[in-house]
Amino acid sequence: MPTLKSRWVTYLERSSRMLRDGTTRIVRMEGADTPSRAPITLYRFNTPQDLAEYALGCDADMGGTSTAHLELDTDPAHNEPVGKPATAKFWGEMRLGVRPGLEGRIRGGYAGFRNKHRPTLFGELTDDVSEHSYLALRLRAAGHPRTRNSYFVNIQTDGPISTDLWQHRLYFNRNDGGWEDVFIPFDAFVLTNAGEIAPDQLTMLRERIRTVGISLLGGNSGVEGPYELGIDEIRAVNDEDVTVPPSTCAFERG
Question: Does domain 37-241 have CATH number 2.60.40.1180?
Fold first, then answer.
């Protein structure tokens, strides 16, 4: 559990980063610096401090019966392939049922996590990925096979409508529970609002990314069972960094 001192240090570090990033943007506008195409590591999942920066939730928060955990995984068998002492494990039980008395009133079958909002002395810290074309995620899909096709990546920007969410389904190439890199073009994300595809598709505000998260939507596909997803890191990259064919399939939930 983060202490008050550690939270204050994190707050000051974010403020320093926001000031530094703002200075960099000013320099770019003046033409003194060429925008970098180098990969950007947006989020790591390798230490207790990393995991403290994420919010976790599931349908049980509103009367469902699913469970959700986001924990540090120190199993060498899982981590040696990526050369890290630890990674994160998002796991639990996906259930479609709800608590007695709530039948027909709420819907079960949801679990997810995202990074927490990041306040600073100068406003909220966001990420600028406008010079990058892909979101890259290093993941390990385990759990019951039937749960592996119901994961979605969710991006929230600092736009005028707080309920807007850009989504894209996660497609895995491996079925043995091993690590793989998944690349999703930012242009392939679909704008949704309150769980529905927005009729007017807008361009993602990639200059101000507030949160990136992953959700398991078992309720949409009638999927139940134990799930497990390993997470190492999330990055923003360009074409020269893509090592496998990117996910460009249409937004489907079937």
Answer: no
Residue 13: its H or E element: helix 4-29
Go through the chain and tell me how many residues it has. Answer: 254
pLDDT score for 238:
98
pLDDT value, residue 159:
85
- pTM of the predicted structure, to 2 decimals: 0.85
Contact indicator for 131, 207 with CB cutoff of 8 Å = no
Query: Which residues contact residue 167 at a Cβ distance below 8 angstroms, ignoring those fewer than 6 apart?
Result: 152, 153, 154, 155, 189, 190, 192, 251
pLDDT of residue 113: 98
Which secondary structure element, helix H or strand E, spans residue 76, and what is its range?
A: helix 76-79
Question: What pLDDT, on a 0 to 100 scale, did the predictor assign at position 253?
Answer: 45
Residues 169-184, mean pLDDT to the nearest whole number: 95
- Which amino acid type is present at position 38? A
Strands (E), the chain: 40-44, 54-58, 69-73, 87-94, 111-115, 119-120, 123-124, 134-143, 151-157, 164-169, 179-185, 190-193, 196-197, 209-216, 225-237
Q: What pLDDT digit, counting tens, does each position of 56-93 carry?
A: 999 999 999 999 999 999 999 999 999 999 999 999 99
Instruction: Tell me the three state secondary structure of residue 25.
Output: helix
Apex 233 CA angle, 242 and 191, nearest 5: 70
For residues 28-59, one letter each, b for 16 or more C-beta atoms within 10 angstroms of the residue's C-beta and e for the rest, the string is eeeeeeeeeeeebebbbbbeeebbebbebbbb
